[in-house]
Amino acid sequence: MQAFQGHFREAMRTDVPLLDHITRYIIRRNGKQMRPLFVFLTARLVAEQDAGGPAGPTGRRTFVAASLIELLHTATLVHDDVVDDSPVRRGFFSIQALWRKKIAVLVGDYLLSRGLLMSVDEDTWDLLKITSEAVRLMSEGELLQIEKARRLDITEDVYTEIIRRKTASLIAACCACGAASVRPPGSGGEEVARLRAFGEAVGLAFQIKDDLLDLGDGTITGKPSGVDIKERKMTLPLIHALQCCSSGDRRRIIRLVKHHHDEPAAVDEVMAFILEGPGVAYARDRMQMYRESAVRQLDAFPEGATRAALVDLVDYTIAREK
C-alpha cells in the first residue's frame, strides 16, 4: 500500500496548476482505501495458488488495476457530491463545496479519463473491460434507485438488485481485477469469476452495514443519522419493517417518507418505527448471510496469511463504525 500511494499520485499528476492543487487535496483526504486492498489481496491469493506457496513481488499490472479502481471510485464520489449537493465528504469539505459544481464535474471527468488512458498506455484492456462494466452497473443502479424512490414501492428483491449494481459491482470489480492482474489477459476465468462473486457478496454486506449505520446501529457513525430517510431511500431495515406491519402503519410511514422527509419530527418518527420493529435484526441476519457467502468463495484457495487477511477485511466491512 505504501508503494501504491506513489503509483496513485503519479496517475493523478497534471501540469494544470488548479487541477494539480485539487488532486493533491483529494490524495490527502483519501479514506480507508479498502478497494485497493481488495485488489492487492486477491491478486496475491491467486499468485500464491499458482506458485504453490509464497508469491514474488507484486507486478505492475496489479498496481495499474488498483490505481484504475481508485481513480474510478474517486471520480464517482466527486460526481455523487455534486448530485447530492453534499458539502462534506469523509470529514473534509467536498470538491464542489470548495471549488463549485462546474469544477467538481470536470475533476470527476478528468479522473475517469486518467483511468482510461492508463489502461490504454499499459495495454491492460482486460482490466479496463472489468472496470467499465462496473461503471455501467453503478450508473444503472443509481438511476434505478431514483426511479423507485419516486413511488417508494421497493421490494427486497428490487433493493438487492439496486445495491448489487450501485455498490457491490465496484467491490466485485476490485476482486476480479486483482485476480485478472496476475494472469495473462484472457486466462484465469474460473478464479476471476469466483473472486468477482466473492466481491459482490462483500459489497452487498457492505451496503447493508451502511443502512444500519444510518440508523445509529449502536455506534458512532461519523454521519448524521436518518440521512437515508431524508433522501427518501428505501433501505433494507425499512423495507422489512414495512412488510411486517399493519396496512395502516405502512400507509402512515410511507406518507411520512414521501411527503415529510425534510421535517425532523417525521424523520424521528420513521427512525423510531424502524428501530422498534424487526427490520434491524433482519438486516443484520442478511448481512451475516452475505458475509458467509463471501467467505465460502475463498474455500477454493489455499489456507494462509493472505486468505486470512481477506476474511479479516470482510469482517471489518461489517464491523466498522463509519
Would you give an account of this structure?
This protein is mostly helical. The chain has one domain: Farnesyl Diphosphate Synthase (Orthogonal Bundle). Helix content is 76%, strand content 1%. The chain is built from 15 helices and two strands. It has helices spanning 2-12, 17-28, 34-51, 60-84, 95-99, 101-122, 125-151, 156-181, 189-214, 227-230, 236-244, 247-259, 264-276, 279-297, 305-319, and strands spanning 88-89, 92-93. A two-stranded antiparallel sheet has the order 1-2. Strand 1 and strand 2 (92-93) form a beta hairpin. The chain is globular and about 60 Å long. Residues 218-224 have low confidence and may be disordered.
- The total count of helices amounts to 15
Determine the fraction of residues in helical runs and give it as a percent range.
over 70%
Q: What's the CATH H-level superfamily name?
A: Farnesyl Diphosphate Synthase
Beta strand %: under 5%
CATH topology: Farnesyl Diphosphate Synthase
Instruction: Supply the CATH class.
Output: Mainly Alpha
CATH architecture tag: Orthogonal Bundle
Instruction: Output the structural class.
Output: mainly alpha
Task: Write down the overall mean pLDDT.
Answer: 88
Biggest beta sheet summary: 2 strands, antiparallel
Distance between the termini: 21 Å
| Total strands | 2
Number of domains: 1
- Note poorly predicted spans: 218-224
Silhouette: globular
* Run of helices and strands: HHHHEEHHHHHHHHHHH
- Radius of gyration, CA atoms, in whole angstroms: 20 Å
Strand line-up of the largest beta sheet: 1-2
